[in-house]
Every structure is written in C-alpha cells, then in structure tokens.
C-alpha cells in the first residue's frame, strides 16, 4: 500500500472512530503532498463540519468543486454545509444542482426536500419527497419525513397511512450518512445511521418497529 492509500485509510478510520481532529491532521498532511486530492478535500470538509469549522469546510468543498464542477456528491455536501450555517435558500440551490446532475437518484430529491422544508417551502418539499419515493418506494426515511410534513399541514389521514406503511417496511440493507443540523419539525430530526442503529437495538419485529417509530415520531414532533 502506497503512502497516499495508507494516509487515506487512516483518515477514514479516524472519521469512523469520530476522531475528527485526528482526521483533519492526517488529511492536512496528505494535502501538503497532494493539494488537489479531491477525496481528501472531501473527507477533511466533513471532519471540519463535525468540529464546526464551517468556513474551513467551505474552502475545501470550493477547492474540490473547482476541479469537479459536475460532481453531484460535492454539490450535495455543500448543501449540507449551508444547512449547518442556516443558509437555507442557498442550500436548496446546491441540492438542486445535485438533482440536475443525477435526476434519477432518489437520494438527491430527498436531500433537496429536507432543505426545502428547512427553508419553509413545505409544499415544494412534499413534491420532492414524492419524487424520491417514486424513484425508490422503499425509502423509509423519505416516507417518514413526508408523513410528518403532511401531518403538519393537516393531511392527517395521508400521514397516518404512511406511518402504518413504515412499520411493516423492511430495514434498509445499508444506510447513508447524512450529517444534518436539526432546524425543527417536520424534517428528519436524526441521522439515518443513528435512527437505524436505535431501531435495530430496540426492536426486532415489524410490530415492535412500528411502536418504536410512532414513539420516536411523537418525540421528534415535541
């Protein structure tokens, strides 16, 4: 394994262990050797977000986007950063660029829906969650978030139907990590990983999952 791969592996291990300061140091060492290494810029940007060094994260993402302006993942991560700094309109625009680059990726629509919700554009958020579900009917997080939005807007019956559907849906085989702030209901008030880790620990059957999801939903709503 060459030096770049070794450092990259160490950075990823530090991120996995939530040792973000160590990850930043390792990434900085690698970038001193290879200033335009996009994967490392991306990893350091994430580590900076976890340590609330948002301006540094922004600089890394700008540097990465300068090299790959059509990278949907980078635009999405810039959108997440802007959500952290409560620049909701700008976050929507970034998520929109990610959607335009990957128009058949359900995750892109779900992320823009989250940003639209944070920006107060609830009906547009509903449309995006529906697009996400049309592309991926098994997207349980979008189903939950859409139900919470509908409930907030008074569409109680539709929301109830979605929550009933969720309790019998299979758990996803793999989860995506989306580091998001918590601007308030009805957007997702949890990271996807944390949510499913909790469900797996506390519920082992469809019935138990349904009870837990309803409990968590009420808790998030306040």
Tell me about this structure:
By secondary structure, the chain is mainly α. It has twelve helices and no strands. The chain has helices at 3-16, 20-33, 38-50, 54-67, 72-84, 88-101, 106-118, 122-135, 140-152, 156-167, 192-202, 206-221. α2 (20-33) packs antiparallel against α3 and α10 (156-167) crosses α12 (206-221). Mean pLDDT is 81; it is low at 173-222.
Explain the layout of strands and helices.
Blueprint: H1 3-16, H2 20-33, H3 38-50, H4 54-67, H5 72-84, H6 88-101, H7 106-118, H8 122-135, H9 140-152, H10 156-167, H11 192-202, H12 206-221
Short description:
This protein has 222 residues and is mainly α. It has twelve helices and no strands. α2 packs antiparallel against α3.
| Structural shape | elongated
- The N- and C-terminal alpha carbons lie at a distance of 50 Å
Question: What is the makeup of the main sheet?
Answer: none
Computed CA radius of gyration, to the nearest angstrom = 18 Å
Poorly predicted runs are 173-222
Helix content: over 70%
Strand content: under 5%
- Number of distinct helices: 12
Task: Provide key terms for this protein.
12 helices; 73% helix; disordered C terminus; mainly alpha; 222 residues
């Amino acid at each position: 394994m060459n030096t770049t791969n070794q450092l990259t592996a160490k950075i990823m291990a530090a991120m996995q262990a939530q040792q973000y300061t160590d990850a930043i140091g390792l990434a900085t060492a690698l970038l001193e050797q290879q200033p335009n290494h996009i994967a490392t810029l991306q990893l350091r940007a994430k580590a900076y977000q976890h340590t609330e060094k948002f301006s540094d994260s922004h600089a890394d993402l700008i540097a990465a986007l300068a090299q790959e302006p059509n990278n949907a993942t980078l635009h999405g991560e810039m959108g997440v950063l802007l959500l952290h700094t409560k620049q909701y309109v700008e976050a929507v625009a970034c998520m929109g660029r990610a959607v335009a680059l990957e128009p058949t990726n359900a995750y892109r629509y779900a992320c823009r829906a989250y940003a639209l919700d944070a920006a107060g554009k609830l009906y547009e958020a509903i449309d995006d969650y529906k697009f996400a579900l049309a592309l991926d009917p098994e997207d349980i997080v979008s189903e939950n978030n859409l139900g919470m939005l509908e409930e907030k807007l008074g569409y109680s019956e539709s929301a109830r139907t979605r929550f009933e559907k969720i309790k019998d849906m299979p758990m996803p085989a793999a989860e995506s990590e989306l580091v998001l702030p918590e601007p308030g209901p009805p957007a997702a008030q949890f990271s996807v990983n944390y949510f499913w880790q909790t469900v797996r620990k506390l519920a082992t059957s469809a019935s138990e999952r349904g009870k837990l999801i309803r409990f968590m939903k009420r808790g998030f709503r306040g």
